[in-house]
Design a protein that fits this description.
4-stranded antiparallel sheet; alpha+beta; 4 helices; globular; 4 strands
């Protein structure tokens, strides 16, 4: 199942280069591909998430480690938007 998530970050380069996203999702059988504005005109970034199912993804986000990874990466949790194809 593919999911697109968008959110704002404090530092785009730090977020893009961070290993936390791959570490966190990889341990849960989820692949995440990061996207950013190549012109650098925004702090909004996107992630294409390939997950076995929505439940697996939601369970992962509910774990305390998810908030820790978001904080490390400088993600503004109030700006997170999730898009799914149904």
């Amino acid at each position: 199942m593919l999911i697109i998530a968008t959110h704002d970050v404090a530092d785009v380069q730090h977020w893009f280069d961070s290993p936390k996203r791959a570490e966190f999702f990889g341990l849960r059988g989820i692949q995440a591909t990061a996207f950013r504005d190549p012109a650098g005109g925004t702090k909004t970034c996107a992630v294409l998430i390939d997950t076995p199912d929505l439940e697996t993804f939601q369970k992962a986000l509910a774990e305390p480690e998810a908030a820790e990874a978001e904080a490390y990466d400088g993600v503004d949790p109030d700006t997170i938007q999730i898009f799914v194809a149904e």
